[in-house]
Amino acid sequence: MGRIFIAIVAAAALLSACATTELETAPDPIGDFRLGDLLPRVSPSLTQGPVSRTATPEEWEAAMTAAFEQNFRRFSGARPYHIGFLVEGYVLAQPGVPVVLSPKSALIFSVNVGDVESGELLTKELVQFTVLETVSAGNVFGSGLTKDKEAQMAELAANAAKRVESWLREQPWFDGSRTLQAAGEASAEPSSELPQ
Questions:
Q1: Torsion region of 44: left, alpha or beta (phi above 0 gives left; psi -120 to 50 gives alpha)
Q2: pLDDT digit string (tens) for 173-191?
């Protein structure tokens, strides 16, 4: 757990290079990907970083679920895949802190992906990510001065979903080979009809 706390401190000191953009109505496909079930979890040892507002596990699960549903339900590939996430740690910047110490909001979470039809877990172990708040003219000194907790969580969750989308696009899993393999296996099954 110490490494998560250290990662939060480090992340909170950085500026975010990840910008939240408006969700497109018809995104470029990720191969044959479409979202099956979303499997949300929050670590029982959820770590709250230094100088942070407090958010409950239920609030994080709701914020992340809403963002992931909104982002990934747009994809309509031929094969369903489950996405599971685990929220592990966070910083939600708050006002009333000297500007020089004002932290940036940050979220640490992990993801795994499974193929619904085959039951195969594509990630052999959880893949961890850290995302930061989007830096803009309105929150250059930290979003604690300009946003409430709910807005901070929604922004971090949206950035988390976009980060996972970018990561999925780098993976070799969605090229359609699984669908083709399943179709080949089906066509190779013996016919129930007797030859004439």
A1: alpha
A2: 999 876 655 544 443 343 3
